[in-house]
Amino acid sequence: MDETYDVIVLGTGLTECILSGIMSVGGKKVLHMDRNSYYGGESASITPLEEFFKRFGIQQPPASMGRGRDWNVDLIPKFLMANGQLVTMLVHTEVTRYMEFKVVDGSFVYKGGKIYKVPVTATEALASDLLGFLEKRRFKKFLEYVMQFDENNPKTLANVDPHKTTMSEVYKASDLCTNTIDVTGHALALHCTDDYLQQPCLDTINRIKLYSDSLSRFGKSPYLYPLYGLGELPQGFARLSAIYGGTYMLNKPIEEIVMEGNTVVGVKSEGEIVRCKQLICDPSYVPDRVKKVGQVIRAYCILSHPINNTDNVSSCQIIIPQKQVSRKSDIYVCMISSTHNVAADGKYIAIASTTVETNKPEEELQPALHLLEPIDQKFIFLSDLYEPIDLGKESQIFVSKSYDATTHFESTCQDIKDIYKRVTGMDFDFDEMKRKHKDICGDE
Ligand SMILES: *[C@@H]1O[C@H](CO)[C@@H](O)[C@H](O)[C@H]1NC(C)=O
Ligand SMILES: *[C@@H]1O[C@H](CO)[C@@H](O)[C@H](O)[C@H]1NC(C)=O
Questions:
Q1: Which of 154, 229, 273, 392 is most buried, by the most CB atoms less than 10 A from its CB?
Q2: Which residues cross the membrane (predicted)?
Q3: Which domain holds residue 376?
């Protein structure tokens, strides 16, 4: 092959597929390869169930699990925030037309050994058992303050400097107690640790607004989930790329990243060198260009019952704030079921996860696993988290970050925007992704 691609992308994880979709829409000539025979890389959904069991060395699932092809098990459990950046990307690129979404039925938080529904409107706060009587009033006032907060309108700020005042100071001014702060920071602002307390308050206030705006779109929870599993997302963006001339190849072993001096010029696969100007890839393709920054432990649990004390919902998230179980990082549970076409009838998939803090990671998940009992079958998997060691300026190799323990896609979207800027030199502009309708209407 003589032709030179603008960009070669290695690995078909969500980050890579969104980038190749956007680059293709933007007119770049893109070649996308994966060593696996399936889409999704680390962010794949595994189907049928037999394939998932084989990953853990079990040849055959028990007959009680039903038909294997009714299952799609996500390797990375996450939900989409209804008003979040990934949904904007899906809508602008019209990738939504390849997929169907359902609202997640409930969002819960763990306090003092029990599960409570997360209150987010002032009315819910007043009705919830989560907070004591006086605290309810204070929380309602706090939420009202946050909702009207506009960084560009000093009248709404009440002497808070969005870029200087810390979140800890904002809480103090609202006189909230520790448990309420825990729920707000971890179940509404979705921070995984308490580091945010000492940082400027604007980010946290915007996160609470994102949660609230997302919730108000559909009412039950702020989260969406695609039918047939998260693996549909990378495939949707791969189709987008293909419509705009992107070339996809699965089952392509990658032997070498070819450099001239310190800059990438191509990729060698099956003895053949394909030339490119830039390379985007996941960490597994360039082990010498990434560093390990931590670990995430995930327990994939198959249940035959909804989780207790969740009103028998068929999907939900449970957040266990770190302080509640004397940890530094939160523990999460994402639960989905046959109503999302990811499990056989009457079955539930609950995935518990957290950032590893000790050398006994499985024990760290106990508070979550305890809530899921009885568990029909449990699989534990420990993943290393990688980040690139450089920004790719000289090498023109741009490496994505591993998927972290957060249960939504906001940090993934941030990584996509960062890589986009480094690759193109331009800020990521959601409107740039708007599909040009020539392929559909035919009137170029
Ligand atoms: C949940 O389902 C169980 C078993 O069918 C039932 O006994 C229980 O009352 C249900 N709980 C709620 C809150 O609907
Ligand atoms: C959930 O409820 C069932 C039925 O009442 C019970 O057998 C099980 O132990 C409960 N699980 C937990 C974690 O409380």
A1: 229
A2: none
A3: 52-105+294-385
Pinpoint the alpha helices (H) of 160-224: 167-174, 178-183, 202-218
Instruction: Report the CATH number that the domain containing residue 263 is assigned in CATH.
Output: 3.50.50.60
Nearest CA to ligand 1 atom 6: 312
What pTM was computed for the model?
0.92
| Residue whose tokens read 């390797």 | 75
Q: Where are the beta strands (DSSP E) in 28-77?
A: 30-33, 45-46, 73-74
For 248-294, the pLDDT digits (tens) are 999 999 999 999 999 999 999 999 999 999 999 999 999 999 999 99
What is the sign of the dihedral through the CA atoms of 355, 359, 364 and 369?
positive
Residue 218 alpha carbon to ligand 1 centre in Å = 24
Pair 249, 267: CB distance under 8 Å = no
The answer to whether residue 110 sits within a structural domain is: no
Given a contact cutoff of 8 angstroms between Cβ atoms, the answer to whether 263 and 397 are in contact is no
The pLDDT value recorded for residue 443 is: 36
Among 190, 218, 246, identify where a domain stops.
Answer: 218
Same domain (yes/no): 321, 364: yes
Atom of ligand 2 nearest to the CA of 309: 1
Question: What residue's CA is closest to ligand 2, atom 11?
Answer: 373
CATH number for the domain spanning 68: value is 3.30.519.10
Domain end: 168, 197, 218, which one? 218
Q: Which ligand is nearest to the CA of 309?
A: 1
371 lines ligand 2 (CB under 6 A): yes
Q: Are residue 305 and residue 375 in the same domain, yes or no?
A: yes
- Ligand 1 centre distance from Cα of residue 312 (Å): 6
Q: Whose CA is nearest to atom 3 of ligand 1?
A: 312
Q: How confident is the model at residue 126 (pLDDT cuts 50, 70, 90)?
A: confident
- Tell me if 94 is assigned to some domain: yes
Distance (Å) from CA 82 to ligand 2 centroid: 32
| DSSP notation for 100-121 | -EEE--EEEEEETTEEEEPP-S
